[in-house]
Amino acid sequence: MPRLIPQQKPQTTMEDEPSQPMIRTQGIARPTTAAVFMLVAVILCSFNMAHFQGYGQTFGVVQPRNGQERDLQQEDVTSSVSPSENQKITELLKRVAELEKDQNKTRLELEKAAPPITAVTAQLEYANKKATGSSPVPSCRDLMRRKDSPFKDGSFLTRRTMPVTWYPRADDSRELRHPICDLHRYTAQEAQQCLTGKHLFFAGDSLTRYQFLSLATFLHTGTYPPRFGRGRDKKCVHVDETGNKACSPDDEPNICMEGDWSGTPKDPWQRYYQAVGSERFDGYLESTSIRRNGFDTSVDNFLYASPVTATSPKEKQFLLSFTSESGWADTPTPIRGFNFTGCAYNGSCNYTDELFEERWQRLKNESYDFNEPFVDAISPTGMFRKNLPPVDIAQYNRGLWGALNNPEKVEKIAQNLYDFTGKEKGRCFFRSTTGRFSKTMGVERGHVKDLTLKSGCGYIDSAHLLEDFNEMEFRWPPPPSSSIGVNVHDERLTVYWDAVHFMPWVYEELNTVLLNILCNVQFDGEMASQ
């Protein structure tokens, strides 16, 4: 965590008192106590110097002892001056006392009248600093685009030696801030331009699924999913800085929260996968995913294609795809499923009940179109090479299923991933696990990171970014509330919606970091277009 270094107060001497600012009340500038004392000194200096013979005795000046300052005593001031001068000095010293009293009163009134520092006001102040160019750090995009920049690959953005800050928003979500630069908040249009003609591939656990769907939603609709779901009681208490609710509408469950889809006669997983593969993306995302409550085996594969229009022709189309890998630690289950039909390319996908039922029967009978380990699926002869368009960017994550303890397996996956993305022409990443922190970090920051970097891929340490949230221990049932009406679980409920899955705003922030890594500088190392 960053340290706050207190400012040291400069030492002052008897002759060098610290200056004080003017205090303004009701539009009138009033002198401070120090200013009045200075005025007294000026007036006294204008008197006949004969009055000040025996200066040390007259003014009762005590020479400093053990660092103590001299004491100005009013009763001795008046002993050797004329009555008229004495009256002036007395009035001035009386005015000093009045000003001191008035100054303290004014300070208390200002403190009482000052508006409280809220997330909204602080957020506006920060936005104003960025808008006026007064931010103390450069933008990450400018930093990475500088000629011969050592930060060009973006690896510093998730390096665990760089302490990050989660800044609270008005709606109880948080904004990720980096210590040496301001993350660029990409618009959907900017992100689309960055990914033009590219294929971005995600592989991992359910958290990776939601990061994929969050980014796909952003690119397709222009906005990320609502930062919070409907909630179990469907009461939204999260309001953003503009006064709008930050929760999913009652009739639109959140795409990044499968728990939002319960409460209907249809199996929630069926309803979820069908919505994703139909109306949620207007037919431009194909879902071949199959799952039902109470059944362990599942298939989880998606392919999204950006719409082709008159202003966005076929050659500018970009693709996003996802596949799920499960299975504990070094024994992951094979990647299995059904071939894509290609409906995403023309926006004709419609995941009907009949199609879902057909694939459900095939799943139960283990009648798949492909079924092979991930390391083989991305190999030169693997099924992803046959069934997917060429991949330019890949992010792989073992996730909640546990770390890969076998270095040989890690090395093979990393080498195949580098080759899968076109070697030096593309980009590949291993993303660290954001859960089960104590059980995975030793391995993932050890040989997994070393072998990943050795292969030519990058390492995105999302676990470092989300480390603070790992300290929010899950407890069920929740502990009782304290005397102020809260318990330690209440803050956690703004970050997680169950034991391991994040609220949608967390994936939004992870994608902001990913876009800064990918888009601040183009893949070939040339400066990105302004």
Characterize the structure shown.
- By secondary structure, the chain is α/β, with parallel strands linked by helices.
- The protein folds into two domains: 23-105; 140-519, no CATH class.
- The chain has 18 helices and 13 strands.
- The strands form four sheets. The protein has a seven-stranded mixed beta sheet, with helices on both faces. It has a two-stranded antiparallel ribbon with strand order 1-2.
- Strand 12 (427-431), helix 14 (437-455) and strand 13 (458-460) form a beta-alpha-beta unit.
- Helix 7 (188-195) packs across helix 8 (206-221), helix 8 packs across helix 18 (504-519) and helix 13 (407-420) packs across helix 14.
- The longest helix is centred in the N-terminal third of the chain and has 31 residues, at 83-113.
- The two termini are 34 Å apart.
- Residues 1-30, 42-79, 114-122 and 524-530 have low confidence and may be disordered.
Report mean pLDDT, rounded to a whole number: 81
Oligomerization: single chain
Radius of gyration using CA atoms only: 33 Å
Count of helical regions: 18
Characterize the overall form. Answer: globular
Q: In angstroms, what separates the terminal alpha carbons?
A: 34 Å
Low-confidence stretches are 1-30, 42-79, 114-122, 524-530
The helix fraction, in percent, is 25-40%
Q: How many structural domains?
A: 2
How many strands? 13
Placed side by side, the strands forming the largest sheet appear as 6-7-8-5-11-12-13
User: What structural class do helix, strand and pairing data support?
Assistant: alpha/beta
User: How would a crystallographer describe the biggest sheet?
Assistant: 7 strands, mixed
Approximately how much beta-strand content do the residues carry? 5-15%
